[in-house]
Every structure is written in structure tokens, then in C-alpha cells.
Amino acid sequence: MAQTETKTAEAAAAFQPRIVAFVCNWCTYAGADLAGTSRLRYPPNVRIIKLPCTGRIDPLFILKAFEGGADAVLVSGCHPGDCHYTSGNYHARRRWALFRRLLDLTGIDERRLFFSWVSAAEGQKFADLVADITEKVRAAGPLEPANPARRRL
Amino acid sequence: MARIGVFICHCGENIARTVDCAAVAAAAAKMPGVVHSADYKYMCSDPGQQMIRQAIAEKKLTGAVVGACSPRMHEPTFRRAAAEAGLNPYLLEMANLREHCSWVHEDRAAATAKAIDLVRVMVEKVKRNRSLYPIRVPIEPTALVVGGGIAGIQAALDIAGGGKKVILVERGPSIGGHMARLSETFPTLDCSQCILTPRMVEAASHPNITLMTYSEVEAVEGFVGNFQVTIRRKAKYVDWSKCTGCGDCWAKCPARKIPSEFDARLGARTAIYRPFPQAVPNKPVIDREHCIMLTKGKCGACAKACQRGAVNFKDQDELVKVKVGAVVLATGFDLWDHSAYGEYGAGKFADVIDGFQFERLASASGPTGGEIRRPSDGQVPRTVVFIQCCGSRDEKVGKAYCSKICCMYTAKHGMLYKHKVHDGRAIVFYMDIRAAGKGYEEFIRRAVEADGVEYVRGRVSRIYRRTDGKLIVRGADTLAGRAVTVEADMVVLADAVVPRSGGEKLAQLFGVGYDTDGFYSEAHPKLRPVETAAAGVFLAGACQSPKDIPDSVAQASAAAAKVLGLFARPELEREPVVARVNENTCVHCRACIQACPYGAVEDHEIRDRKGHLVRTVARVNEGLCQGCGTCVAICRSGCIDLEGFTDEQVFSEIATLE
Fold this sequence. Notes:
The complex is a heterodimer. Chain A is α/β, with parallel strands linked by helices. Chain A has one domain: 3-Layer(aba) Sandwich (Rossmann fold). Chain A is built from five helices and four strands, in the order αβαβαβαβα. In chain A, strands 2-1-3-4 form a four-stranded parallel β-sheet, with helices on both faces. In chain A, β1, α2 and β2 form a beta-alpha-beta unit. Chain A is flat and about 40 Å long. The N and C termini of chain A lie far apart (37 Å). By secondary structure, chain B is α/β, with parallel strands linked by helices. Chain B is built from 18 helices and 34 strands. In chain B, the strands form twelve sheets. In chain B, strands 10-7-6-18-29 form a five-stranded parallel β-sheet. Chain B has a five-stranded parallel β-sheet with strand order 20-27-21-22-23. In chain B, α2 packs across α3. Chain B folds into five domains: 124 residues, Rossmann fold (3-Layer(aba) Sandwich); 177 residues, 3-Layer(bba) Sandwich (FAD/NAD(P)-binding domain); 58 residues, no CATH class; 165 residues, 3-Layer(bba) Sandwich (FAD/NAD(P)-binding domain); 64 residues, 2-Layer Sandwich (Alpha-Beta Plaits), CATH 3.30.70.20. At the A-B interface, α2, β2, α3 and α4 of A face α4, α5, α17 and α18 of B.
């Protein structure tokens, strides 16, 4: 029994989650830049896709990312009220609130979808966020290949 | 067929230390569509850029990916290099291998793998990039200045002096703003009117300035370089082309007890009035709320008195449309209404006055002719208490900020009082003295040492009126550590500086942001202090934050310089990252029109040759679109796309991460 547990723990440590992050150009992308300029460390599991604004994010992007094998998806933009385009992040927030509930219908655990506000001044927050997501997803394990939503081509 | 070139930068050691750049270049060379792949120590240097230019020319590249620092750093550099080699700059993309990879990771293998992924994403994206061309919009070289205070006047004069036309809109009947009401100005104690009124006259007579007083901005359409602004010219009931400003009308007006706004309600005016004798334009308007003829339908004394026949009771508001290329907002400030402070009498004591009322008492043109006489009985007060930070720095009333000017004007008030009432006592209660400015600290010291103004550090907890009319001021002296009680004849409150009423509505018209206190937001607190988030709209003066006269004037000149800089070009170039509607598939559900924060999506009617309406679709106005893409994500029929971030591009990026 004890042996099995050790093995599971080892497997979890070896598992490298794949995280796709959809971020806006003005806040979170710049926040991630700041994490770099400040030489902060975070796990190399995240792949950032830059968009002008979180308002540009079609829910289909998130589904496609999961379908393509992402173990988690992060959506991050400007804080409420700070949107470079005045209100794009509010659209994103509304869309996300609704989409999160629908995600369960696809068989994907909604806890694999993360949403955050990271401003251009919050390099530390971005680094912590990626570390936190990586840890959580590593604990949750890979998005099951048996899941019909995941279709490896 | 795509022919992509990949260029991996070492950034000295910055990238190469954790990423195996040669391995990334080798992996990129195998990616589909890549015909050229190289790595170099400093890609942004001249030899590095030359590598890119040479490869574009020799290998006939149709796209390029530079794996280097953040695109926020060097995208313009590399795009310029691409353009020099004849490649459309929008066919070059950057993979962020430094800020997003080498600088944040330690494990060389993992960082290299990530770098290869980031390059692959961009290679797939750039294959789907289209050539884009900057959008050119002509500029209407006329500026609109909203607000005729010192900031607005300065901005208008500077722009007009630069040879461009200016329309100066002022809500009141005269320009001059608050500065015209001040007695003397700190720290030089020169007479405010003497330095301001010549500028007012200059603004009114300048050939490039069109003055629109008694007018307000009603609606705004358009965008930088091409605003269409609708201005409401309120009915003046006096034909200014006939009026000579002789004054016969207001001498005869029977409605004589209207509190004068200019005199801070300490004096009275008539219903047909000019706000003050030095008003510009020096012509009267009829206040329609108080005019007996306009409210009750009989009187007409002014019309009878006017020998020129200038009074016209049938006058109506007029909407004027103007075309301008840039806007300067200089709407200024108000003083906070201290009646929210119950402990200071809730505004019920006549002798507890605000700073403007003291200014009018001290002014030679004021209701007392410059003698300090208290409002209740006209007596000369022997003890005057000044209380600073009334509302400012008090989160209980929702104002955490410092109003900046009160320390200085309170010291000035104390001085002016002592100059006029030599044996009187001027006592100032203060929290801190903030006298940062040229000659300001010296001015405070002068008030204390030369003029004998008494300063007590502490807050006043309560003011109440004794039966003999004395105002009892109870406070604390925190330096001496004891309670203080003063029997005062008059109290002057340094009320917080707040933005002008109606400021929020104006900001919304122009798409300018404002903070929780209502002050207009600048584009960047340090580096872009006069611009706003709305392109072509600039800020001047206290509408942005509390400011004294020199700061307001400096900002106004800065705003004018920005306007002149904008007008120096005949055309405006904009990033072509804009949304486009496929009009063949648009079902005109109007979801995008409602979602667009800029009102950039418009209804467009498609008509046949005979002019019959075929159908209506959405169309994006390129001049207004800022390229956020909210409309794209919201479109139900998938018929809007955003240049540079098309669905095809984003989906291909996602697909490479499998």
C-alpha cells in the first residue's frame, strides 16, 4: 500500500502539466514581462497566447486548448476598471461566469479553468499565479485521455 | 507557399544562458514552412538587423519570426527592419524568449523546450498574417477648449499663438473662471485681476479664437483628428451684436436680490446681469430662472431701458455643430460643500464661510469693497479662525486626497486679514503644512514671522454659536498636548477642492476616464500627464487634480503643445489592428454594436443601384476602432475578425501547443 502511494507521488512529480494562458496585451502580458525583468521564477509549464484584450477571447479558444491537450487554461487581463479598452474585461468576466458552468457539460472539470486579474505592475502576482496553477493541476493529474472531450489527433 | 525566416537572438547571455539558442534555431529550421533559420548574439544590433534584411531579400521570405525579448521592447525595431527590406512590417512577429522564458526559468532543457514551443506558435501565426497598411485619417486643425478659466485661456492662447484655430467654450456668461474672483495670489500677493484680465481680453480679441460663452458641450461624435461636437448656446435673451454693455438694463431690473455666484453668495445681482464689471465679453445675459418677465410674463423693464433694442425675450437655445481635431478639457474645480460637517455648523452659521467667500471679502471689487466685514452683521471680526483640511484628507467624507492649494491660500488669507485688521488675531488650525513650491515655504514663514498669523497644529472638533453671537471653536493643540477653545468672530473653512459639477457627464461624452473622486484620469500618471485614454483629448488644470495657478498654466501650455504637435501633421497614422465585418454573412443582430466600447461599429445600409434598401449590416469605422476585439468574440455568426488577431491565427496558435 505504502509502496503504491510513493509511486503515485513520483508520477505526480514527473507529470508536467500543460497550461495555456490567454492574456491581454496591456496588463497581464506586461505583468508577465515584469516577472521576467524582475527575474522571478515560475514553472516552465505555461504557454502564453497574447490577445489585445480579454474581451477578444472566444470561449471556443478555451475549448480548443483543452481539446488540444491542455491540462489547464488561464484567462487573465486587466483589473476591473483598468481595461485599456474601457470595458473589454467586463465582457470577458460575464462570458467566463457563464462559460465556467457550461464547461462541466463537456466533461472537463471547471476547476481546470482559471481566471485572474494581473496588472502590468504585478509581476510577482503572475509568477505566484503560474506556480499555484501548476501545483494544483499537478495534484489533479492530467486531463484524462479517456475523456471524450480530449481528442488527440 | 509560406517562406518563413526564424531569427533567434542570444541577447548576449540573457537568453543564451538558459536557452540553447542554436538548438531552438535548429528545431525551427524543421518546422513546416520555415526556409531560413539563424541565431545571433544581438539580433537588435545593426549586424543582427542586417541578417534579417538580407534573409528577407535573398530567401524571398513571406514572413519572419524573431525569437528575442518582449515585443513591447523591440517589435517596432524589427518591424522597421523588415519594412526596409521590402517585407510588410505586419508580416513579422516576435516570440518572447527573454521575459517569458529565459529570465523566469532555470532548467535549461525545459526552457529550451518552451522556447521551441513559443517559436512554433509564432511561426504558425505568421503564416496566416496579412499585409496591413497604416490607416491614414486627415486632421481638422481646429481645437476645442472646454472651460474658460485660467487653464482654458492659457491653452487657447498658446494654440492660437501657434497659428491654429481655437473654439473656447465656457459655461458661464464670462471667461475668467475662479481666478477672476481671487483677491490676491500667493506667494507674490499680486492682484489676481490685474494679471488675469489682460489675458481675458487677449483671448477674446485673438483672431484665431472663437469665444462661445454661456454655452455647453451637448454631444460628441467622431475620433481624434475628426471630432464633431455639438455645442448648446444657451439663450441669453440679449442680442450681443446690438448690445453695447452700457448697463441701462441692469440698472432698471427690479429683481435685485439674487445671490451673486461671482461674489460667493455674499453680494446680490439682478436678473439681467454681467457676472462682474471686468467680464469678458462685457455684455449681460438674462437669468431665466429669476427674470420676472420670463417667469411671470410681465415686466420688461430692461427692454424699455435698452436704447438699442437688444433685449429679446423670445430668444432660444441654439445647437451649434463644430468640427475639431483635438480637445482640451479645462473644466476646473469647485469647493466642497462643508454642510456635510455637522460639527462645523452644517453650513448654518452665516459667519462660518469658505475660502471663496473670504476671497470676495478681501477683494477690492467684492461686496465690502475690500474691507473684511463678517456676513452676519457687517462688523469687522477681531478674531478669525482658519481651519485647514476641511473635507480633504478625511476618509469619513470620502476624500482621502490632499487638496494641495489650501495650505497656501490659508496663509495668504491670514496675511491679508492681518494687513487689513492690524490688531486682529488670525489663528490657523492645521494638520500639516504642505508648502512645496517655489517661494511657498518662505511665504508661510512670512505669514508666521512677519505678519504674526498664529498656527495651531490640531483638528477642530466643534464650532457652536454662543448667545452673544461669538463662535466658540473647540479644538486640540497636538503639539502642546492640550485642548484649545477660541472665541472667534468669523471662521474660514478651507474646503476640499472637488471637480466641477457635471464633470462626469462631460467625461463620458469624450470617453475620458475619471477616478473615484471625479477627477479626470491622465493616460499615464508619470509619463503622459496631459493625455487621456481618449486619443486627441487632453487635460489642463484642476479638472485632473487639485492645482494652483502656476501648475494649471503649465499643464495648459503642455496640453497646447500636444495639440500643436498633433496639428503639425496633415494626416494621422494609426495601427491597422482594427476589426472588419464580413458583410456577406452579417445578420445584423447588432450584438457587436452594443458591445463596442467606442461606438465604432455602425449600421450600414446596403442599397441596390436604384437606391432600394437591400439590407442593413454592421460596419466598423476604422477611425474609431481601437482593436480590442470584443465585437469579434461576441459575434454570433462569426463574421467579424480582428486584423492581427484573426480567429484563424489564434486557433492555429492553440493547435501548435498540442
